[in-house]
Design a protein that fits this description.
- The structure is a homodimer.
- Chain A has seven helices and 16 strands.
- By secondary structure, chain A is α+β, with helices and mostly antiparallel strands.
- In chain A, the strands form two sheets. In chain A, strands 8, 9, 10, 11, 12, 13, 14, 15 and 16 form a nine-stranded mixed β-sheet that branches. A six-stranded antiparallel β-sheet of chain A has the order 2-1-7-6-4-5.
- The longest helix of chain A is centred in the N-terminal third of the chain and has 14 residues.
- Chain A is globular and about 50 Å long.
- Chains A and B meet through strand 3, helix 1, strand 6, strand 7 and strand 8 of A and strand 3, helix 1, strand 6, strand 7 and strand 8 of B.
């Protein structure tokens, strides 16, 4: 099921700047028993990302209406919200008057294999470009993610880790990364590349509330290899402990459950 | 007039990877008296850009059919050809089976003001990220161009010049740059950022055929300032001599006409 500007149907316009330039933002979230999980937080992210691109974010109530329509028919699953700058004539200049296009689409709950024992990951060859003007934003210019994800087809490998052009580790192709080291959490700085996910924020906030140090810092591949545990997180997968990264392996830790509980708590609030 | 997959209409699917991720390429060219100018060259560019992203470029004859349909109704103007990886389920992974989406849209000839005397340009603040995996390709991830073009609204300024994050000059927001210096042409290396336009290729090839040295090299803003003349080129504008860049000014030179003639020759071949 897809709604475009609140009406069922999947058609958008070829002149839409989302199609022409990737001029928009998106968010993916879970629906559970009709409730969009972490909605206030997800909406804040949409608002902030729109603001960064000077796109007029629709009011929360408008998107809530769309979500209610989707949830009425499909109470469980994954919802993707895309907001673009709208339809315009050819050319990069932002027209004075544009009407944001919003597409809200439902998809079936991912058939999540048991990830308790951890997933296998690999290093991607592609290096993320450093672009502070776009870093952190979940915008529609995602060719780097597409190219990185196309580096492997082995279904046993669940995720690829990305470095930037300076060699720093940024995260997974579709997930944020946390390292555990000596009881502290470390997650990459996203001031040059990457997407700042809602789940990443939850973990940072809750850890700090629990008195656990969280360092947001540039991370080297060596630090990843030396970590006591690695976790990949996003709103759909929740928490994936990394059992293997190329030849390196890690044993399951009770931190996986801890991080999952933090997310459950946030989701049920 | 817009054709999507050869049929008149402007609707594309919200699940199209062009809309979702900017996963595609495009080209803009001129139609004159029903003829798409520089078509073999433009098609080669589409083919090469598709190959770089592992998108199956439609055969030239298919696109020629679209162009003929457009030209039958609108023999003059600008045509934009967009090719995307097609419709797919959510997720960055490239599906095994996708059918390329092609959108061919016509727009009115730009009302080109007299640019003989040269245009005014500015430096953009935005720095282009360095991404060798995407450099040169006219792909649909164009948020950098959108942000750069949004830096000014003064209609007296026709184009903005962009530097990359290392400070090298790459070109205009929608055009390639040539410097004239001591009778030689210099154009920026596009191995890290920028789009390699068809007009750029024509000028490089013809200059070399004429025995004029063309250097493809990293260029500093100082070198731009010290040039004897600057030219911005693309398939729609042709050649714009730069009369002013911020406080710097240049007088018209007979090189503008020379470059224009080279393009005319290529177009009429």
């Amino acid at each position: 099921m897809i709604l475009v500007n609140g009406i069922e149907g999947s058609a958008v316009d070829a002149r839409d700047r989302g199609f022409a330039y990737g001029d928009g933002v998106f968010r993916t979230l879970r629906l559970r028993a009709g409730t969009p999980l972490l909605w206030p937080r997800q909406y804040s992210k949409l608002e902030a990302d729109c603001a960064a691109l000077a796109i007029a974010c629709p009011p929360a109530t408008v998107l809530e209406g769309d979500l209610a329509m989707v949830a009425a028919r499909n109470p469980d699953g994954v919802v993707k919200i895309t907001l673009t700058r709208g339809i315009a004539a050819r050319g990069y200049a932002i027209p004075h008057e544009t009407r944001v296009t919003r597409a809200v689409s439902w998809s079936a709950p991912s058939v999540a294999p048991d990830r308790e024992s951890g997933i296998r990951a690999r290093w991607c060859d592609l290096r993320l470009a450093i672009q502070p003007a776009l870093a952190g934003i979940k915008h529609l210019n995602r060719l780097e993610n597409v190219l990185a994800r196309s580096e492997w087809r082995d279904p046993a490998i669940a995720e690829g880790l990305l470095r930037d052009t300076e060699g720093h580790v940024i995260g997974g192709t579709m997930s944020n990364l946390f390292l555990l080291r000596d009881g502290c959490l470390i997650t990459p700085t996203l001031s040059g590349s990457g997407v700042a996910g809602a789940t990443r924020d939850i973990i940072i906030e809750r850890a700090r509330a629990e008195g656990i140090a969280v360092h947001i810092a540039p991370i080297t591949p060596q630090e990843v290899g030396a970590a006591d545990a690695l976790f990949l997180v996003n709103s759909v997968i929740g928490v994936w402990p990394v059992a293997a990264l190329e030849e390196l392996t890690w044993r399951a830790s009770n931190w996986s459950g801890r991080l999952r509980n933090w997310i459950s708590d946030a989701e049920s609030r």
